[in-house]
Amino acid sequence: MNENIYWIALSLIGISPLKVKMLMERFKDIKEIFSLSVNDLVQLGITEKIAEKISKWENLPLEKEIDYIEKEGINVITIKDKNYPDLLKEIYDPPFLLYVKGNLNFNEFSISIVGTRNPSHYGLKMAEKFASELASIGFTIVSGLARGIDTSAHIGALRVNGVTVGVLGSGFNYFYPPENKRIEKEIIKKGAIITEFPSLVPPEKYNFPKRNRIISGLSKATIVIEAGPKSGALITANFALEQGREVFALPGRIDTVYSKGTHKLLKDGAILIENVQDILEALNIKVEKKEKHMELEANEENIILKILDRPLHIEEIMVKTKIKPENLFSILTKLQIEDKIEELPGKIYRKKNF
């Protein structure tokens, strides 16, 4: 653990990222902070309560925390490490320490998808649809592992064998919500689950706004699917705007409370999206395929278009074409972006102008 012990100690103490940022500007070595007196720390702008904890840092449950980290296979990434996410480092108050399960070396094209914990069927479907389509063309999907829209976004990415990153509002020992522990192993195969909180920090209400700044901070843009007027998703969107990132919002029905937040975002200047192409154009991203796959994919595209002489369910397409599921989702997404096919309710596809 070496120097990481000091970073973990600061994490256990609960000092704010901004205070650590300030201290790092004054001291080259993090160890120097622990040699300062309480009075020295207070003069530097640290509260007396935190200063007392720093001066008595050896009394912290460090051994217990380190044992847990090693037992659970958690990686500790500090803001000074090379593999700390560049996008996150750019925000006003980046976490000085990340506890990570999985792989944080994800694609630079990361986008967050957030929304209400109590979505409509439409909201769930759209979250999964946008996540799967974006993941299939190389985006990393970032979300908060919450019930509702967040969960659908993670599942949408996993459905196409894509990369997704979940950000917890608690320590790993209080995985929240507990039912999403079921997708932890799938997420960390290619992506990651991260938190800035030590293992024994429970999912307190005031932790989630802190969590939300990390979701937006890891992302080039944030998509809000459904959100009430006081939804946490709006906090994430506001963080994204403060961080100079794009905010997209999906329009919804005018007679539901879960459209109030997204419609307010649209009125305030968020970009209205109806499909993935809207996102790619706004971000000025062109989807390019590797040449060695182009001929094969062109043939597979033609096969799909040929059998879609009538609307077909995704499973029928899979059986008829014998295309691997992860490839099929990618090709279907590409054909939708090119406006050659469209998806109907129930994962049924048909040619455009059928």
- Compute the number of structural domains: 3
| Total DSSP E strands | 12
Q: In DSSP terms, counting alpha (H) and pi (I) runs of 4 or more, how many helices?
A: 16
For the record, the CATH architecture of the largest domain stands as 3-Layer(aba) Sandwich
- Classify the secondary structure makeup into a structural class: alpha/beta
Helix content: 40-55%
Overall mean pLDDT stands at: 90
Order of helices and strands: HHHHHEHEEHEHEHEHEHEHEHHEHHEE
- CA gyration radius, whole angstroms: 22 Å
Q: Biggest sheet, strands in spatial order?
A: 1-2-6-5-4-3-7-8-9
Distance between the termini: 62 Å
Low-confidence stretches: 290-294
Shape: elongated
Major sheet, described briefly?
9 strands, mixed
**What is the quaternary state of this protein?**
single chain
Estimate the strand proportion.
Answer: 5-15%
Protein model, in words:
With 354 residues, this protein is an alpha/beta fold. It has three domains: 1-60; 110-282, 3-Layer(aba) Sandwich (Rossmann fold), CATH 3.40.50.450; 291-351, Arc Repressor Mutant, subunit A. 45% of the residues lie in helices and 14% in strands. The chain contains 16 helices and twelve strands. The strands form two sheets. Strands 1-2-6-5-4-3-7-8-9 form a nine-stranded mixed beta sheet, sandwiched between helices. A three-stranded antiparallel beta sheet has the order 10-12-11. Strand 4, helix 8 and strand 5 (163-167) form a beta-alpha-beta unit. Helix 7 packs parallel to helix 8 (149-159) and helix 7 (121-136) packs across helix 16. The longest helix has 17 residues, at 291-307.
